[in-house]
Amino acid sequence: MRALQNRFLQLQQTRFPRSHAVPLGALVCVCLLAIFMTACSLRPPASEPTLRWQQIPPLPDPVGLASAFAGVSGGALIVGGGANFPDKLPWEGGTKIWHDQVFVLERAEETWRSGFKLPVPGGYGISVNYKDEIICIGGSDSKKHLTNVYSLQWKRGELLTRNLPSLPLPIANACGALLGDFVYVAGGTETHESTTTLRKCFHLNLSRLNDGWEELEPWPGPARMLSVAAAVDGSFFLVGGTDLSPGPDGAPVRTYLKDAYRFTPQRGWKKISDLPHPVVAAPSPAPTVGDASFLVVGGDDGSLANFQPRSKHPGFPKTVLRYDVRDDAWRAAGETPAARVTVPVTRWNNWFVIPSGEMRPGVRSPKVWALQAD
Predict the structure, then answer these.
(1) Given strand 133-137, what is the order of strands in its sheet?
(2) Per residue in 184-214, pLDDT tens?
(3) Where are the beta strands (DSSP E) in 275-318?
(4) Which of 98, 126, 96 has the alpha carbon at shortest distance from 362?
(5) Residue 325 class from Cβ within 10 Å (0-12 exposed, 13-18 middle, 19+ buried)?
């Protein structure tokens, strides 16, 4: 770099005869140096975020919940629904139960309030904050996948609900995020028995509910479920996940994915850089850092998919990845103290809250972690 700068100064001080053209090589050198110096001044290297973690009061469910709905309304943190194995673990013959209970935490130093209910039991759906409401989308119950879409609002000690336009088809295990007034939903499955995933994307304008859900063109890649969604820099992002295909015995077989895509309104889809490794079921929507990056916190990379015995599974990877929109690059950004999958993320009082979730396959944790990144 210093040599180029010296050469630039030399060329500035050189007086070329008026009857002679400036050497082509000199012009090229000057132009390249000017472009390089301008780029450096406009786009300094991104500094890695500082991650701060803290625990807030655990959910009053002793087992914990996978894929609950979560959000903030009336200043309170609200977590509802989800599924778990309350009596026995799955490899012990336990039965998965879907719940409709709702827990409300008005302040981090207080205890959770209970005794509230969702309109229907459900989990494995999508939840986003919009104005003072929590929008809960799709998911499943013990028998079927759902088309239900409704909002939750905490007002003067009451939990209010209202119905919104239903999804065009039953969807669970999808991902979604809010971009402006639009909530986006991508991927997922249609039934509990599905051996294939959806390659579909929809959005709903929450300021014009009568327009209903609109199907968008799909991303230019495989179908998937359990992906991470993000909304930043005016775009919706779809990251990783897993595809399904029927195995020899008819049971679904996973293909772990590390590709990622960006959807910008009026421009459509664009493939972005692949993740360094596959990521499935990481907390979603992804926490954002500033206005040009987001974090993928842990997730299942598939490396221990066949681990036995299941009771001794060591847990999911703790690596936190940062995607920087400015240079389309993934970087390691630290670790989470407690890796969780199949769990929502919601922003509350400048913290990104990750309530409960799976700590290893089949095993939930009631602990609630909060992340601050800057």
Answers:
(1) 126-130, 133-137, 149-155, 158-163
(2) 999 999 999 999 999 999 999 999 999 999 9
(3) 288-289, 293-297
(4) 96
(5) buried
pLDDT above 60 for 40: no
| Per-residue pLDDT at 346 exceeds 70 | yes
Which residues on adjacent β-strands are paired with residue 83? Answer: 66, 98
Q: What angle do CA 310, 313, 318 make, to 5 degrees?
A: 145
219 close to 234: Cβ distance less than 8 angstroms = no
Backbone phi, psi, residue 44, to 5°: -65, 155
Whether this prediction's pTM lies above 0.70 is answered by yes
Measured CA distances, 278 to 290, 295, 336 (Å): 25, 14, 17
Q: Specify the amino acid at residue 296.
A: V
Residue 331 pairs with which residues in a beta bridge?
322
> Residue 178: which of 144, 139, 204 has the closest Cα?
204
Q: Give the rounded percent of residues in the chain with a pLDDT score beyond 70.
A: 87
51-373, CATH topology level: Neuraminidase (2.120.10)
Q: Is residue 131 packed enough to be buried (19+ CB in 10 Å), middle (13-18) or exposed (0-12)?
A: exposed
Where along the chain do its domains lie? 2-42, 51-373
Q: Rounded distance, CA 41 to CA 37, Å?
A: 6
Place of tokens 């993000």: 230
Please name the helix (run of DSSP H) or strand (run of DSSP E) that holds residue 252, with its range, or none: strand 252-264
Q: How many CB atoms lie within 10 A of CB 321?
A: 24
* 102-150 pLDDT per residue, tens: 999 999 999 999 999 999 999 999 999 999 999 999 999 999 999 999 9
Helices (H), 58-141: none
Tokens of 228: 């991470």
Q: Which position has the higher pLDDT, 243 or 48?
A: 243
Token readout for 68 is 């609950």
pLDDT at site 8: 38
Averaged pLDDT for residues 85-107: 96
Residue 13 has pLDDT above 90, yes or no: no
Paired residues of 117 in beta bridges = 101
* DSSP one-letter code for 277: S
